[in-house]
Amino acid sequence: MKRLFPLLLLLLMSFTLIDAPSHARQPNRKLNVLFIAVDDLRPELGAYGNALIQTPNIDKLAAQGTRFELAYCQYPLCNPSRTSLFTGRHPTTTGVLDNRTWFRAAHPDFITMPQHFKANGYKVLRTGKQFHGGIDDTEAWTEGGETRQFTGAVNTTAPGQVAANSDRIVTLEGNGESHGDYKSATRAIEYLEKYKDQPFFLALGFAKPHSPPTAPKRMIEMYDTAKIKLPPDFAPRPKAPPGFPEISVPPRSSDLFIGRDASETEAREVIRAYMASTTFTDYNVGRVIEALDRLKLRDNTVIVFWGDHGYHLGEKGKWSKHNSLFEIGTRVPLIFVTPKGKPQVARQTVQLLDMYPTLVELCGLPMPAGQQGHSLAPVLRNVKAQWNHPAYTVTFFQNKLGKAVRTDRWRYAEWDDGKAGAMLFDHTKDPHELKNLADNPAYAKTVAEMKKLIQQMPYEK
Ligand SMILES: [Ca+2]
């Protein structure tokens, strides 16, 4: 047996060589990544069960890969959410809790996802919004990096809020050719044509459906306002319902209906425009996927589609995402299409910051230090994979840190460690989060368990 062993080993090695996947023998055939970011898109999509909205291209992607039913952002605002996912760290570690802070000032050592792919031989290409506007990780990209627009750690010149009339609906001609999102998709197609023969990480970002609602006229006309249902907790202005902490619903919306009431008629018109705006994004997604298929890149490309946080369209009277720890403010669409992956729906509670370690694993790159997310690769291989990670979201409002945790059944949130209020919702009975159970003694044990989970969230003082 001792003499046989080297022989067996040799035999085994030769089999391994024969069975090696084709890309292992060709150094240029690493998996590509097409990374599609959408600004302020809640899971308002056909693939997520909305029968009214027209999103055929995104629905098709969902039907070809893994759709995550319970995916959550780490902060319900652009810059903190995106900084978290691009660094693979919770906002409580990056220290970025607003739209004005640049993470590199405090953490020059962090290796961002585009930076890591570039360092590993990828052409890393950016078109449209990835990091928050004006705070790009400029050097991380091979092409398309945006110059940072201020010199300090904090942008002191940024305007506080967008214009008060941002719920004015913008109508475009034709297919929206004049709009930046159409042009971002065109640039993505040019990148595909230019870099099709080398490993690429193409990050494509769409600004819509972020306010103001914008869409080609023909897409707005696809929808009949009479068919649009208002949410069960619709209110003309933001207001914490009875039994909810005051801090849970900021008194002023920051995207739409800023500082004014929304009538039911106006609300339906703005929801229609949000849907049309999403259809416009879907149309541009379709243009890029068509080019990917035309260039025969599908077999060697991972496609990821995601939104940066949730969004209230009148739920609890709120028209924005800012400081919401509700399901509607934190839940996002997340779809992965991998070569040879099978269509499936995952119900694990996953986080946007899981994307970085996932893509690193799928592409066979070394795992950078400091990752606080978990690779989704086991779930992509088998939707029944074990998963014991809850999803966390934080927000900083009125000088108080709010923390939320989501398990497959419960959502729990508390502000200032519970001193400024807490919320508990049972998602098996209350998908719209209409009944706060946090102060109900019958749920004290669940509250204690959820508080324990919250204490496990990485936190850097
Ligand atoms: Ca956003």
Description:
With 461 residues, the chain is of the alpha/beta class. It has one domain: Alkaline Phosphatase, subunit A (3-Layer(aba) Sandwich). The chain has 14 helices and 13 strands. Strand 10 and strand 11 form a beta hairpin. Helix 8 packs parallel to helix 10. The longest helix is centred in the middle third of the chain and has 31 residues. The chain is globular, with a radius of gyration of 23 Å. Calcium ion binds next to loops.
| Major β-sheet annotation | 7 strands, mixed
CATH homologous superfamily caption: Alkaline Phosphatase, subunit A
Attached small molecules: calcium ion
Low-pLDDT ranges: 5-28
Order of helices and strands: HHEHEHHHHEEHEEHHEHEEHHEEEEH
CATH class: Alpha Beta
Computed over alpha carbons, the radius of gyration is 23 Å
Structural class: alpha/beta
Q: Provide mean pLDDT, rounded.
A: 93
Tell me the β content.
15-25%
End-to-end Cα distance:
59 Å
Count of discrete alpha- or pi-helical segments spanning 4 or more residues: 14
